[in-house]
Prior knowledge:
Elements: E1 9-15, E2 20-25, E3 30-34, H1 35-40, H2 45-48, E4 66-72, E5 76-81, E6 89-91, H3 92-100, H4 102-116, E7 138-142
Amino acid sequence: MADAATPIPTQITLHRGSRVLEVSFSDGCVFRLPCEYLRVCSPSAEVRGHGPGQEVLQAGKRDVGIEAIEPVGTYAVRLVFSDGHDTGLYSWDYLYELGRDQERLWQAYLERLHQAGASREPHAVPRALDAGMAGGRTSTWKKL
């Protein structure tokens, strides 16, 4: 559940061409979160593991996109990614944290990739068909 002190999204816009999720919050903050960033920071057990030290490094996700945004109650969204990943629930708190701490979290991710000798490039990872991402379309979800 969302922390009562955390602002809530007033609008979520998926920019398909640039593969960016733009999230506007009730406090006026607007964050532009790349799909790759959201995918590699997924709150799912598949990415985070089931405890400290069990995180699974996500490599080869540079070209991943978002195919769908599904509201979950009044506290989160489920993002469906073009590589088939769809098990993470992005709470309002977590989306806000990802926006607020984006630079630090992204740099930490890049460092983990470097240390593992891994890459953002999908060359070693089968690339999912992504026909829905063509054409630069934009989708918007707005809180009513």
